[in-house]
Amino acid sequence: MPLTLVYGTLDVCAEGFMYFSKMLGNKQYFPKGAAQISRNRLFSQYHAQYPQHEKDTLTNDPINNICKARVLFVTVAFGIGVDLPCIRQVIHIGVPRTMEEYFQEIGRAGRDGLPAVATIYYNCYDLKSGKSSVDPVMKELASGDGCKRKLILSYFGHELIRANTTTIHTCCDNDAAKCECDDCLSRSLALEMQDATVEDNITSDDSSENLDLSITVFQKNKIREALRKHMETLYFGPSCVGGVSLATGFTTDLIDKTIENSEHLTSVEAVENLLPVFCNENAKVIYDIVTRFSS
């Protein structure tokens, strides 16, 4: 079964493990009703301090197709002598320090020849000019708008040769945004039509009554302030894996989009249709705050 690796520091491994355990509760064991032992857990850790017998289980069970884990929180220790064929996704919490380190870690995925995905979650601190521990090429990889595959290959002295220049969406996120193949164009058109339909539904007038809210600049500032205060309450402890944004989906971008669309947020359903909310609870909070300061 496919595995996802989440690379991070030892603290990230511990926090990620505890977060999953807290959120999943009894559902963290598979199958339903199975003994609540580490071998039946859907996620685990792998680092130098982890018990050797647990690490042996995590490297042997996938090969024998009996591994229950689907997510592993790992450090650089996972790359030493580990070769599993079923890793479909590699996630980094924070930007790796060097290209060599990043290349070695994402190389854990796709060893069976099937497609795999690599993702980096980072914040402005990871890329700040004063943080010398991250190589410039890694900062460019994370935040640049060029082809990521080309940048990686160029760093190691290779040239990117595309077998098909019309379907570049499978290369990286930057190329996916530029892809003009039939599938991407159809998907883009469908999203535009969906957005137009949602806007028509939200702003339609079925009884000569304007459904939009009337919100002043002062009220918008109050809404923004309340949303930021709510975001600050979402931490589960001194720190959060990848930050509160990654853990809860309540991001500064979500707050900005809430302000932009505040006049149209006339119901929880409207919030879910117009904003990139992580869950229904976030939609309810946003609707309550907008309603409170617009009435």
From TrEMBL:
Domain Helicase C-terminal: 1-152
Reactions catalysed, as given in the entry: Couples ATP hydrolysis with the unwinding of duplex DNA by translocating in the 3'-5' direction
Keywords: DNA-binding, Isomerase
PROSITE patterns the record matches: HELICASE_CTER
Domain of life, per lineage: Eukaryota
Cross-referenced InterPro entries: Helicase_C-like, P-loop_NTPase
One Pfam family per UniProt: Helicase_C
One MF annotation (Gene Ontology) recorded for this entry: four-way junction helicase activity
CC annotations in GO: chromosome; cytoplasm
EC number: 5.6.2.4
Family in the record: Belongs to the helicase family. RecQ subfamily.
Protein name: DNA 3'-5' helicase
